[in-house]
Amino acid sequence: MNEPIAAKVGSSSLSVSELDSLLGYYKINEEHREEFIRRWIERELLFKEAIEKGIKNSKEYQLTAEVSNKELAAALFIKDYFNKNKSNITQSELRSYYKANPLQFSISENAVVVNYAGFNDLNDAVEFRSTLFNSGWNYGTEQLKKLDNITEYAVDKLFLRSELPTAKVVRVLENLLPGEISIVFESEPNIFAVVQLVDKLKANSIPKFNYIESEVRERYSMMKKKLAYSDFIKELYSKYNVEINRDK
């Protein structure tokens, strides 16, 4: 059976499955879909016209194509290299990196650390809040997984003041003491929230490790990748006998 075609220009075609794969998450958005198809058609039209006019035979095209091919091959290779050579990062490594580089993690403005849950059903929000008082937040988050009306939740989530989702959330947090749990409130239309203030942080302070572990991991992983890349390039210098003539 022939695969459904989303668009066709002469002998070139864009299948529905190719389109969905290229669009990813945006495949559900009709506007994005139409725009992508329009751009694909324009590119194919211009490419066919360029071929007809002999652009591929020009020296400029051939040089540009060679550079592009090398860059693409190198990018795909390095992506594959790091996928095959992933290093395990231990908790000990992360904590050592955090302690050795505290200023990297200084925050630029006042911040709060919160536990947060949002629901699109008021009764679920009220029930969840009652669970918190009886069993604590950690037990409560386990119950969240059983609820269909949960819209979002976070545990020990650090927010800079400018990152807080709504003005209503800001006002509620301003009236809480560390450890205190809010009443159920409507954080935005039809979203019923419960928030617990875990900690308040001053601008230019350094958050505790457990508040920013994901950021520490991201930075440490990036550093290790840069070092690994540098070492690998040094190996390739030797392997391929690099020469640099600085007299010209």
Sequence-ordered SSE layout with sheet pairings:
Blueprint: E1 5-9, E2 12-15, H1 16-23, H2 30-52, H3 59-84, H4 91-100, E3 111-119, H5 122-135, H6 137-144, E4 150-160, H7 167-174, E5 185-188, E6 191-201, H8 213-239
Antiparallel strand pairs: 1-2, 3-4, 3-6, 5-6
Can you give keywords for this protein?
two-stranded antiparallel sheet; 8 helices; alpha+beta; 248 residues
Written description of the protein model:
- The chain is built from eight helices and six strands.
- Helix 5 (122-135) packs antiparallel against helix 6.
- Strands 4-3-6-5 form a four-stranded antiparallel β-sheet.
- A hairpin with a 2-residue loop joins strand 1 (5-9) and strand 2 (12-15).
- The longest helix has 27 residues, at 213-239.
- The protein is of the alpha+beta class and 248 residues long.
- The chain folds into four domains: 1-54; 58-87; 90-106 and 212-248, no CATH class; 107-201, Chitinase A, domain 3.
- The protein has helices at residues 16-23, 30-52, 59-84, 91-100, 122-135, 137-144, 167-174, 213-239; strands at 5-9, 12-15, 111-119, 150-160, 185-188, 191-201.
Number of helices: 8
Low-confidence stretches: none
* Multimeric organization: single chain
Helical fraction? 40-55%
Quick take:
With 248 residues, this protein is an alpha+beta fold. It has helices at residues 16-23, 30-52, 59-84, 91-100, 122-135, 137-144, 167-174, 213-239; strands at residues 5-9, 12-15, 111-119, 150-160, 185-188, 191-201.
